[in-house]
């Protein structure tokens, strides 16, 4: 079965872009990030972007679809 080409993964944000994203999300959610937590939150955001790029890079076949029920 031929595979469907995945969408190109989103580009990983630069540090500056990640900081702007963090500010925007913080403001949109009205969730202030205390200064002592800012560096760790920013690092977590960058790691999540990398993880998302990895997940989005997997190729799926035409008949692949999510399972209706998760069974470990």
Overview of this structure, please?
With 72 residues, this protein is mainly α. The protein has a domain at 11-57. Helix content is 50%, strand content 6%. Strands 1-2 form a two-stranded antiparallel ribbon. The protein is elongated. The mean pLDDT is 83.
Brief overview:
The chain has 72 residues and is mainly α. It has helices at residues 15-28, 35-56; strands at residues 3-4, 60-61.
Secondary-structure blueprint:
Elements: E1 3-4, H1 15-28, H2 35-56, E2 60-61
Antiparallel strand pairs: 1-2
Helix pairs in contact: 1-2
Tertiary shape? elongated
Number of helices: 2
Radius of gyration: 17 Å
Helix content: 40-55%
**How widely separated are the two ends?**
26 Å
Q: Low-confidence parts, pLDDT < 50 over ≥5 residues?
A: none
- Mean pLDDT over all positions: 83
N-to-C order of helices and strands: EHHE
The total beta strand count reads 2
Beta-sheet strand percentage?
5-15%
Structural class: mainly alpha
- Provide the spatial order of strands within the biggest beta sheet: 1-2
Largest sheet: 2 strands, antiparallel
Relevant terms:
mainly alpha; two-stranded antiparallel ribbon; 2 helices; 2 strands
